[in-house]
Specification:
27% of the residues lie in helices and 19% in strands. The chain is of the alpha/beta class and 200 residues long.
């Protein structure tokens, strides 16, 4: 079992090449979250809190993709460059990787549908380690971040949304703002790096 302190954990959602500029499904300025997330990573490593990183890990043929009846272009196909984490994201070796959307009939928006390399679901891992509070960053605000936050709240976890370390697709211009409001109404709390440093 990974040694850690405290009941807090950091969840980094889908900071993958295909969701960044020049990727197959880019979030506008998606790479801008990387330096901020790296600052959070330093804080969480210093405090010996658990760190999770979710990733879309789709098969080439999946109902998630447009050509097979889904909503999205091909992206984050297993073992491709597009599915790799952004090269400047400084994930520690101890980070627990959660793969989601791995089956042909799965969209995999929420990190809570993801599992570690041993097949253990995210919620099970959190409970095993006594985690009560999740700090959430990553891509995209209006899809996988939102789904992960809402599922965390439904499962009874406290959630801090790191609003300076998320970015959205914004198919409609205010999609991300609406998503943030929805997460806050559901019980998430806003937090930024400056507040985090002040409080910790």
């Amino acid at each position: 079992m990974i040694r850690h302190l405290g009941n807090k954990a950091l969840l980094i959602v889908d900071v993958q090449n295909d969701f960044c500029p020049q990727g197959a499904l880019p979030v506008p300025k998606g790479d801008k979250v990387v330096p901020v997330i790296n600052c959070y990573l330093k804080i969480f490593q210093r405090n010996k809190y658990l760190i999770f990183a979710s990733r879309d890990w789709h098969p080439r043929k999946t109902a998630h993709f447009k050509e097979f009846g889904g909503s999205w272009p091909v992206h984050c196909v297993q073992k491709t460059k597009g599915a790799r984490f952004h090269p400047r994201l400084k994930l520690p070796r101890t980070a627990i990787i959660l793969s989601k959307g791995c089956k042909r009939d799965q969209d995999g928006y929420s990190a809570f549908t993801g599992a570690d390399p041993n097949g253990k679901l995210f919620k099970e891992i959190l409970e095993l380690h006594g985690i009560e509070e999740l700090y959430v960053a990553g891509l995209a605000t209006d899809y996988c971040v939102k789904s992960s936050v809402l599922d965390a709240l439904k499962a009874g976890f406290k959630v801090k949304l790191l609003t300076d370390a998320v970015n959205g697709v914004n198919i409609k211009p205010d999609d991300s703002k609406k998503a943030v409001r929805q997460m806050i109404r559901a019980g998430a709390k806003r937090l930024t790096l400056s507040h985090f440093k002040k409080d910790n």
